[in-house]
Structures are given as C-alpha cells and as structure tokens.
Amino acid sequence: MRLRQPNKIFLAPILFLAVIATQHTAGGQTGNTDKQGKQESAAKKQESKTKINDDPLAHVKKEGKPNALINETSPYLLMHAYNPVQWRPWNAASLALAKKEGKPIFLSIGYSSCHWCHVMERESFLDKEIAKFLNENFICIKVDREERPDVDSIYMTSLAIYNRVTRNGGGTGWPLSMFLTPEAKPFFGGTYFPARNGDRGAAVGFLTIVKRIDEIWSTRKADIEKDAKFLTGKLKEELDGTRKKENFEYKQSIIGEMVSAFEQTYDDTWGGFGFSPINDRIPKFPQPGNLMAILEAAQRWKNGTANKILNNTLKKMHHGGLWDHVGQGFHRYSVDRYWRIPHYEKMLYDNGQLASLYARAYEFTKNPEYARVAKGVCDFVLSEMTDRQGGFYSALDAESEGEEGRYYVWSKDEVLKTIGDSNFKLWGNIYKIDQAPNFEGKYYSPQLGKSLESWAKAKGMEFAKLQQQLEPIRQKLKAKRDRRERPLTDTKILTSWNGLMIRGMADAGRILKQKKYIAAAERAAEFINTKLRDDKGRLLRTYRKGKSKLNAYLDDYAFYIDGLIALHRATGNKKWLKIAEELQAIQDKLFWDKKNHGYFFTSDDHQSLLARAKNPSDGARPSGNSISALNLIYLAKTSAKPEHEKRARQTIEAFAGLIELYPRSVPLLHVAASKLIKE
C-alpha cells in the first residue's frame, strides 16, 4: 500500500513502515419457590469451589535474571519480568535514563487479558535477537494500561493523531507500540506487529521497524524531533476536550436528537451499534453507557425508538456467545455482527455496568430474562472475581493452554458425556450444540437461538419450570469446565472498576430484592475505604497482594462515589452518603478546572505528562465528568447543598458543545443534563 506524505511534517522516512499492521483491538423471575431456593443454594455451594489461577509467573520460563518489572505488583507487568527485553516501568528514573543516554523510548502498553499482547510477547519480546537490538538502542518501558490510564490515554490519542495525519488507514488498540523521543514525545507507532517480514502476510516485521527507526534516529534525529513536536502540539489540542457553552439550556427535544443519532448506527436486526451490512466481521461491543442513556430515554421520556433499541440489543447480547451460558457473566466483545463468537476475556468494568443495566431494564420492562441475566452477572463475579477481603478483581484472560477461548468452548462429545443423552436433547437443542460447530469448525461456543421465554412457550411450560430443568445441567457443565486449566485472573483491585461493580451489585440487590448482592457491595465499599485511602483520606488507584499504590484518577473518585450513592439508595444508610460527600469535596479540590470548568483526569499534584486531559467522552467505561455530574445532582438533592447543583451545571456547560454536535460521544452527559429539566 502506498501512503501519502503529509505536507507540513516530516514523517516520510518511517511512513513505509506503516504498511498497515493487523490491528487487534482491542463485556428470571425474582421470586423463588422452595425448590428454586434449594437449587440456588446448591449452585452457590458448587460455584464457591471455583479456584482461580492468579499467578502471572506460573507459566513463565525463568531464564537468567529478571528485569526491573519483577518489583511491580501488576500481573501484566510481572508476566514480562523474565523477558530478555530489559523492560523498565514508567517512572521518573526510566524517563531520566532515556534523556541521559539520548536514546529513543520504545513504549509498549497492554493488559493481562489482552490476547494479542500475549502473541506479540511470544513472537517478539521473547526473541533474543529482537531483545538484544532493543536493549542496545532503546529504553524499553512497559505499562499496564489499567494501572496507568493517563499514560495510555495520551499515547493512544497520539497514535490516532499519527494515523490521521499520515492517512495510513491504521487503527488503535492493544498492544500499543509507540516510539518516543527521550523527552517522551511520540513520533511513530502502531499496535501489534509480527516479529519479522513474511510472518503474517505482507505486514512489515517488528525487527525491520526497530532497525529502520534506529537508523533514522542516528542520521536524521532533527527531523524526527520536528515530527514529535508537531504531534505533541496536536495532542495537547485534542486532549482538552472542553467545548464550553455558558447558560446552556438542555431541552427535551435534544433527547430525541440523541436517540436519532444512535439510530443512525443501530443494527436493527441484531442490536448494538456500529456495523457494516457488507462486512459482518467488524467487532461489536456492549457499550453500556449508550444503553444506559437509551434506557433513560425509554423509561423517563417514553421514547418509542429508544425502547425498541434497548430491548432488541439487550436480548441479542444475551442470546449470543457474548454471554457465558455455562459460567455466566459477559465477555468483552463479539468478533462478529451477530454476538456469536466473543473475544473471550472478561472485564469487571463491563460486568459491573451490565449488572446495573439489566437490573434497571427489568425494573422498567418486568422481563424475567433481564432479571436472570443481572443475577447471573452478580453470581459470576461473586464466584470468580471477588477477593476474600471483599474487593473485586479486574479481569479474566481470554487464553488458557496457549489458545484463545480454549477454556470456554466444547466439543459435542464432551457435552454428551458430561450431561447424558436425555439432558442433551433439551440443553443441546436450546443452546445449538445439535447444529454444526460454530468455533473453528470443530468446537461450540454455546448460545441461544431465541429467548428462554420463547423456548418455554414452544415447549408448553412456564418460564420458571424451564429454568428449573436447565440449571442442574448448567451446573454439571460448569463443574466439568472448572477442572480445565483456567485462564489467568488479574487480581489487582482497581478503585474505579470496583465503584462500577459496587453500583451493579447495589442496583441488582435493590431491584431484585437480593440482600446478598447488597452485602457484597457493602463489603467492597468497606475494602476501598480501608485499603485504598491514604492517611489524608485521598483515594489510591490500585491494590494487590497487600500493597496499595498510585494516585487515584478522576474515574476512581467519580465511580466510587457513584457506587456509594447506589449503596445509599439500596440501604438508606447515611454512612455511605457521608463518605460520598467527603470524597466529593476532595475531588473538587484536586481535579476541578477553575478556569474552564469540568474535571481534569489527573489531580493537580499528579506526575507531569505531555498534556492534562479531561476525557469527556463515554466509551467502554463512562467518563469521569459524566458520572461526576450525575453524582453532584444526587448529592444536591440529598444534602440540600445548592453548590453541588451549580458545579453539576458548570460541568455540563463545559462540554455542552459535544452534547449538541456529537451526542453519541457523551450519552451520560445527556442523562445528567436531562435530570436538570424542570418537568
């Protein structure tokens, strides 16, 4: 592919390297009869035996001395501690070393459950020839994007700008592979690269790329520095995100405009957003923030289009392989339009948001399947992602035994032997195991062809009766699956993601009248309050193996406060409201933009990076600004403090231009703004 050279910046010596590397981017009825109660008790007893695989070094080949990552707590960083690449963590000492030696920085960002991060490690970072070249010519820094979302955001945005400016057609995602000047300014990047030319089609190999970059750095450093300065300037412009509009008046008509904007990208056959009618292999994500806004429009504002979008999407997501029909919980995304085959990692932030979404959707529609899904999410998290002290773990890997999805897929014979012929006639029919394999031509990723409610009607039985028949079969399959080699569990406990799961547990407990979920939310909140606050009351970002560290970000404050608010709603206990008020005051002090309003992503005493972002857009996780506006509105009503509502209005006004021009980018700001409409 021939790439066009931009007019105003250099970039040309390395443009030929940007021949596009493959991008891999990188989530029942409430009442119980006595029999149902016994089944749930048995299920809980069985699932409580689930053992996690939490040792990131268990399958690492430990040759020679470890690199500097051995002192880290992140499972992702520890997995790379015995790479021959001399990785360093992102810190002042590593950045100072780059300046001292005058070497460019190779920055690699990923996370523990990222499949293509593992692939690039195996192919390139364990390769001794590649490692030797990197060690001699670069300062190599490895970052866990979940620990350092500030670093990830800056350089992911840099890659997006680089791709846009060079018009190379490239995407963004993880692993993120960026090359920086010794001053940490970006000048070239991509995502996954194969190790050598010819390894994966026409893609240029990583070894070729690093050798070419080293050559250009040695002979034309001034040109690269010029490019880096240009890209850094564009980065600073883009990351501010403020589109201020004072005295902005949000009207009900704008809600309809938001729904119409979503309708433009809505898949009216299979649900969800973003698809191509001619390419069914474009990944599809749950996007719970979008669906929360759609739910608000349907429930509060009686928008019929929103109602249609909501229900079709919730049903299709659950029916397909995105939902784990054996172990419960949602995988991160589907690799196809139809939600059939997932990318098998499971993320806490998806499941936290989706537990709340399905519970609230049940409250609105009374669809028993939504209640069943919300309970399934919570039960999965309690079984497989909850620390003994009460905090929630971050993620489950997509890989086991070196294969993506190996833990989750089945052969027909294995299902038959596990559940028997009579059960297979029911379960195999409902979950499409009696059809042709749907994964790699020989395996099955179980999924529904239609809703269980529809199956019950087709079989002439009550929905609850069908559930009673299916649950023991599911338990047999889960017990069998539990004996397989498990994917790695990332056991770091992140404050922000715990806030989302606290919200999910509290909402599900309140709406479905399940005290155990509320109790789990309270335990997690106590954990955050005791283990992830310093002696000044400020929040910390991450905890693992008895160690809490890193300054908290806006999302940590906003999401945890949101979880506390959900707990206050669920329990009426003013203790949670008091902690929420304390933390909101700290957040206002550390993150508020006094000039343009809204909240910065990092605190005013955080490590200085290339730019101080605000990150107003809602993505896989909501924006800290959106959730803060919602928090402030709730606190204003419950505490009778008008300054909270004033700050909420100022936050909304700071991004009002986005609300009007790009409504799909800030759906939860729409929800916040709509709550200020005087009905």
> In what range is the share of β-strand residues?
5-15%
Biggest sheet details: 4 strands, mixed
The value of Rg in angstroms is 25 Å
Mean pLDDT: 91
Structure, explained:
Helix content is 51%, strand content 7%. The strands form five sheets. A four-stranded mixed sheet has the order 2-1-3-4, with helices on both faces. The chain has helices spanning 12-15, 34-47, 75-79, 92-101, 115-125, 128-137, 149-166, 206-219, 221-240, 252-265, 288-299, 304-319, 348-365, 368-384, 412-430, 452-458, 463-482, 495-512, 515-531, 554-571, 574-591, 624-639, 642-654, 656-661, 667-674, and strands at residues 105-110, 139-144, 176-180, 186-190, 333-334, 342-343, 346-347, 395-396, 399-400, 403-404, 489-490, 493-494, 540-544, 547-551.
Write the layout of secondary structure elements.
Layout: H1 12-15, H2 34-47, H3 75-79, H4 92-101, E1 105-110, H5 115-125, H6 128-137, E2 139-144, H7 149-166, E3 176-180, E4 186-190, H8 206-219, H9 221-240, H10 252-265, H11 288-299, H12 304-319, E5 333-334, E6 342-343, E7 346-347, H13 348-365, H14 368-384, E8 395-396, E9 399-400, E10 403-404, H15 412-430, H16 452-458, H17 463-482, E11 489-490, E12 493-494, H18 495-512, H19 515-531, E13 540-544, E14 547-551, H20 554-571, H21 574-591, H22 624-639, H23 642-654, H24 656-661, H25 667-674
Parallel strand pairs: 1-2
Antiparallel strand pairs: 1-3, 3-4, 5-6, 7-8, 8-11, 9-10, 12-13, 13-14
Helix pairs in contact: 2-17, 6-8, 7-9, 11-12, 11-13, 11-25, 13-14, 13-18, 14-18, 15-17, 16-17, 18-19, 18-20, 19-20, 20-21, 20-22, 22-23, 22-25
